[in-house]
Amino acid sequence: MPSHVTYAYIRKNPDIREYIRRADMALAAIGYTEHSFAHVEKTAYTAAMLLETLGYPQRTAELARIAGFLHDIGNVINRIDHAQSGAVMAFRLLDRLEMPVDEICSIISAIGNHDEGTAQPIDAISAALILADKTDVRRSRVRNTDFMTFDIHDRVNYAVEYADLKFSDDQKSIVLDLKIDTEISSVLEYFEIFMERMLLCKRAALFFDKKFKMYINGSSIL
Questions:
Q1: How large is the average pLDDT for residues 96-124?
Q2: What is the pTM of this model?
Q3: 140-159 burial code (b ≥16 CB/10 A, e <16)
Q4: With contact defined as beta carbons under 8 Å apart, do 197 and 115 qualify?
Q5: To which H or E segment does residue 41 belong?
Q6: Rounded to the nearest 5°, which phi and psi values hold at 56?
Q7: How many DSSP H helices and E strands does the chain contain?
């Protein structure tokens, strides 16, 4: 029986939206970049786009959207182990909505496997979530308005003028294309912050039998 739990319903659910708001407030308090609706909606869109392009069923892509929207709610408890606590929270929310168990398993497995410290691309939804989440780097995620007090995370995100995740023309690679203002942050600084995430993206792409490539200012970096 098809599930009645849709991305549109999850996105409008007031309780879930409050968890996301409060999780982002918690991260703001400790100086992290934006993890609110802009981030989770972009993650949801990108995860679904990857699976749709790869020919997965529409419902699988929708489950990836839901996982993308919910993936950071664990930050309301603590940034440490937020993937695991978020998966438990998502289980309770989705179980109360009587979502089928197999769909809940897919979503909570993806959420529990998205943080680079413990992440593994164990299935298509988790691999898509990893790629979508870890490639969301952009200037608008920086909260700090005082350029003189930027830390390395602020500089690296603020330096990104353009970011696009796409498939190569031959469909053999998943490509992150970035344009960075090197007057704000060097390419080396980018890798200092994001190397572990990019290696995780490489593993996630391999799940789909694809290469992961990255271009910065037109040059192949990875």
A1: 95
A2: 0.94
A3: ebbebeeeeebeebbbbbbb
A4: no
A5: helix 37-53
A6: -75, 155
A7: 9, 4
| Residue 187, φ and ψ in degrees, nearest 5 | -60, -35
Between 86 and 31, residue with greater pLDDT: 86
**What are the b/e assignments for 181-207, b being 16+ CB within 10 Å?**
eeebbebebbbebbeebbebbbebbeb
Residue tagged 């080396």 (tokens): 188
| Residue position matching structure tokens 């995860």 | 47
Q: Which residue spans within the chain are E strands per DSSP?
A: 160-167, 173-180, 211-216, 219-220
Amino acid at 30: I
**127 touches 94 (CB < 8 A):** no
Element (H, E) at 202: helix 187-207
Residue 151's pLDDT band (boundaries 50, 70, 90)?
Answer: confident
Please check the confidence at residue 2 and state whether its pLDDT lies above 60. no
Q: Could you give the count of Cα atoms lying within 13 Å of 12 in the half-sphere of its Cβ?
A: 4
Query: The tokens 């168990």 sit on which residue?
Result: 101
